[in-house]
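Q: Hi! First time doing this. I have a protein sequence and I read that you can turn it into a structure. Is that right? Here it is:
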Amino acid sequence: MIAAVGMGSPLSLFLMCLTYGVMALLLWKGRMPERIALVALVVLNWGTPLVDHLFIGHFRWGVAILSVSMFCLLVGLALRYDRWWLFLAAGAQLIAVSTHLAGIAGSDALLWSIVSTRMVVWFELLLLALLGVWEAQCAPYARPKSAPVSIRALQKV
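A: Yes, that's right. Below is the predicted 3D structure, encoded as structure tokens:
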């Protein structure tokens, strides 16, 4: 997603720093769902420039596949884990998926609005991921379940 911003502008530098900062926090402070989302963000971020040249008419099917895959993963994580930020991130990603449908219309007039919408959604995903790190650390339901201590282990002490 960062490659679409236009490297060198203050906005692209800010988004790049925010992206890698959030990714570092997800790895360092996140739990399993945050780390799975991190892998998906890395694939989306680095994979987009690799498949950006794949077109059918005006439709970027390679980027659309990555975007739909990210949405499906976020929905699956939201249903599997007790994390509210994953539901919000899936909703934000659904907006990005819908921009691909606008691309099917084939209008070049829509191009910058589509790209701008995807940039805003990327920013939203990063902010939600930051809130996810906070949730993983602070929410009582996000803490890992501890294994029951056996009575024999207590008796040995």
